[in-house]
Amino acid sequence: MSEDLKDYLERTAEQVDLMLDRYFGDAFGELFKASAHLLLAGGKRLRPAVLLLSAESVRPGSSDDLMHAAVALEMTHTFTLIHDDIMDGDATRRGAPTVHVKWDEPTAILAGDVLYAKAFEFITHAIADDRARVKAVAMLARTCAEICEGQHQDMAFETAEREIEGFEYIEMAGKKTGALYAASAAIGGILAGGNAVQVDALYQYGMNAGIAFQIQDDLIDLLAPPEKSGKDRGSDLREGKQTLIAITAREKGLDLAQYRRSDLTPEELDRAIAELEEAGVVDAVREIAEEKVATARRALSVLPECTERQHLDDLVEFFISRSF
Amino acid sequence: MSEDLKDYLERTAEQVDLMLDRYFGDAFGELFKASAHLLLAGGKRLRPAVLLLSAESVRPGSSDDLMHAAVALEMTHTFTLIHDDIMDGDATRRGAPTVHVKWDEPTAILAGDVLYAKAFEFITHAIADDRARVKAVAMLARTCAEICEGQHQDMAFETAEREIEGFEYIEMAGKKTGALYAASAAIGGILAGGNAVQVDALYQYGMNAGIAFQIQDDLIDLLAPPEKSGKDRGSDLREGKQTLIAITAREKGLDLAQYRRSDLTPEELDRAIAELEEAGVVDAVREIAEEKVATARRALSVLPECTERQHLDDLVEFFISRSF
């Protein structure tokens, strides 16, 4: 990642944190505190950055008016995480106990529902043309429904009696992760007054970037040293999760069932990785992510050349080079 | 209720059912089916009726353009019921198994989340001025957050170690039930192009009507013969729920703790009712509901005199005369 983009992301994250702190910092009442808990626990704030960069690419100076909209996308992301953590039974996230663990399940359902509402309220606070704001709301609404479908598919994969195909995984990742990046980019374009070609290009950029992001997440889970990723290495393998890696391994005739054990040793994990690398599974999966990144970058070509377009280009490259 | 209003409500319910059936009737996939389940299980469709009558009172003919918005309010109501049923652990509603029982809890969380998204999508489909649509979205969003707060307060009452006061109950009912009726009426007014005075009056109408509705629900639970209400008579009393009846009884020095038993006989229940009636509890609670109805009716006076304003007037009267 370029130093310029790194600076930009840090500055944007600070602005997002500032607005969130102003709004949720002295949250009053247990429900509001539960809503704020994960939102204030940090995060890279990548979706707000994508929204602001997209707006700026379409119309320089427009992003100043769109901080509320940018924060709305972070709220949407956080609400889905709170509900997902209940469904997946996860106890920690970002180094803190999840909402349903720190409070309880009913409070966590409601805390997510409150953020869901706040996201739509914040979108309406964007300083933009009325018609554009209506379009932004409609796109956010359609996106939320898609994210739910993606999460439902992801859960269904785990109990499916049939073999999941690679294209199904990519469809799921598109809904679960791609759709919100697509909406972030497109809503930035819409609110900045972009034309249909620009908005569609930004949507395609975000969708492909998001899918690449999700694939990279799976690679990180397998390959990244835990001190770098902050995650429990190989958890997907141990749980037998239907990732693109597992699906590609099966297609190449590898049997990963032997590694589906909670007491897997680091040595066994290394052997699994070696096996996956030798069979070309890791390379094949990386190639798919790279292809998505190339598509995302190509989509940007309809936008005027500018620093922010260059940042969007750098950012999607970072999506598949990161190890955290 | 006048025959005219009865006809109107029936016709509106048919139109709502028709639109829901067109949209959700051949739902594809388990998640969409789970979202449609409770929505297609019937219901009085009172919130859509309030929205359409309010619009029509402000500008004759406007309601034709607002069916999507009317249905959005029904979706919002249904999403809150699906999530509430999970939190309250209820197994049946409208004579059918609840979503988390028929499917499972993760699916029910997502099914509610999908309807939540669809509600906002449908509001944007209203045929109305852009600025009005943005305002309608903002009001729906604020309302959803309020409903969550109301549900959270309601749950907190049950585990509170201190005594709940009457005004706290009314505040809770205002958020949990009043806010969505208030939003239904006000959004109808906003989308029909009403001025600020009209929209505020409609909001006050809906808020007071909704609180009266909730109080009547509690009276029905205690007093209505089950063959009429379709409910399990006296369930609030047996569970020791903090209703306005229980709070008022306590304030009048009555001890209801002896009736907090799941094996309460019909005779014991009759004795409890007699005790509550003799002590003036039932009358006192009714009086509060009637006062809310009077406030709701007074609010309507700023609207032009017309059939639809008369219907709104009749409707709130029905809210506290109904036994189902």
From TrEMBL, chains A, B:
Keywords from the UniProt entry: Magnesium, Metal-binding, Transferase
Keyword Magnesium: yes
TM annotation in the entry: none
Keyword Mitochondrion (UniProt): no
InterPro entries to which the protein is assigned, alphabetical: Isoprenoid_synthase_dom_sf, Polyprenyl_synt, Polyprenyl_synt_CS
Coiled coil: none
Name of protein: Polyprenyl synthetase family protein
GO BP terms: isoprenoid biosynthetic process
Cofactor(s), by name: Mg(2+)
Signal peptide region: none
Taxonomic classification: Archaea, Methanobacteriati, Methanobacteriota, Stenosarchaea group, Methanomicrobia
Pfam families from the UniProt entry: polyprenyl_synt
Family: Belongs to the FPP/GGPP synthase family.
GO molecular function: metal ion binding; prenyltransferase activity
Gene3D superfamilies referenced in this protein's UniProt entry, alphabetically: Farnesyl Diphosphate Synthase (1.10.600.10)
